[in-house]
Amino acid sequence: MTQRNGLLAITPLLLLILLFIAYGFLAEVTEMRMVYIFGIVSLFALIAMRGVPTAERISSFWKGATHRDLQVMVWIFILAGIFSSTAKGMGAVDATVNLTLQLLPSNLILAGMFIAACFISLSMGTSVGTIVALVPVATGITEHTYLSLPLIVAAVVGGALFGDNLSFISDTTVVATRTQGCKMRDKFSVNIRIVLPAALVTCFLYILFGYGKAGVVEVAQVEWIKVLPYLVLLLLALFGLNVLLVLGIGCVLTCAVGYLTGCLPPIDWVRLSWNGINGMICLIAISVMAGGLLGLVKRGGGISYLLYALTRRISTQRAAELTIAGMVCITNLCTANNTIAILSVGTLAKNIATRFGIDPRKSASLLDTFSCFVQGVIPYGAQLLMAAGLAALSPFDIIPYLFYPYLMGVSALLAIRFRYPKKYS
Fold first, then answer.
1. Which of 68, 123, 166, 244 is the most buried (most CB within 10 A)?
2. pLDDT of 193-210, one tens digit each?
3. Does residue 366 contact residue 411 with C-beta atoms inside 8 Å?
4. Against a cut of 0.85, is the pTM above it?
5. Which of 142, 151, 158 is nearest to 101 (CA)?
């Protein structure tokens, strides 16, 4: 592969970024416009790829669009749409909101949602599952307070990424530790020292932003049977059940509780389920086209070119750590999946770490932290797409308030700059 071919292969990614920037200045970037953007860039990538037969181009796009991880994500979108729509229709969201307003001090609701998301995602090991569980509740809370909807949704997303980065059962933790050859608990002890300051500062910021914005409302009596779907959803997730199984059980519970309470007849449950799926169609289309675009970029040698360009001029340990961070960030921008990004660069990162004497616990932490940082702020990542879809927002509405991902990235850069932590035991 020549450098020229590699550079041509990443041209679609550059076009994608330019279109997002242009839309950001000229108009609101809605889900439908994101579909148009990805459609245009995917078509451009199919046409522009040189030296590859048309049938093979289409095959590469299709292989990326139907990747196993992407298929799982599509089913998560579908089940999340059904659960969110039916839970709201049978009153589960309102009941859970009332319970939350009763339990949390009025001025700590925003920080409380962030902390709740941190602990749930830490226990579940999945940021998407945490977002599915908490964003509908966060959306309902804004109806009783003066809190901004994008702000409270961003608090949930930030907390979800905290656990995704640190959880022992998170895919990113498993992949990062395996590729770097270290134990999970050792990686955790290093990783927590890097990101905990960011979490504490974020919590303080949310306390400041939430102070005095609780509103003066009378909280209704909690209907405990209607809270049941959410309580079961959270408990099953905390016990480590697969997110698809958890969401499936949640959907069945909304149907059962709605029928038993008489507030949601089966025919209405079916109607709301269909509405929930329709609400996820744009997100599914974006995810599929993003996967297909990645397939074309990989087939053209774009990922290999980026990794080569980043690693050819390393001379110091600090530069090596920055290179590991840069590799996983750029790969994550291309793949929109932090687990795949770590898998893609893990072996090369291990070689760099060994060559320049970087502790495996540090390299694993850098891979995981920087991949979660990028995953949390890209508008076409599953986390922001899911949060925006459930809250009826654009991902670009949420991005300015993602305090934790930004501070997590800054903390990781400072850890590289000041060689922190200096002791690992």
1. 166
2. 999 999 999 999 998 887
3. no
4. no
5. 142
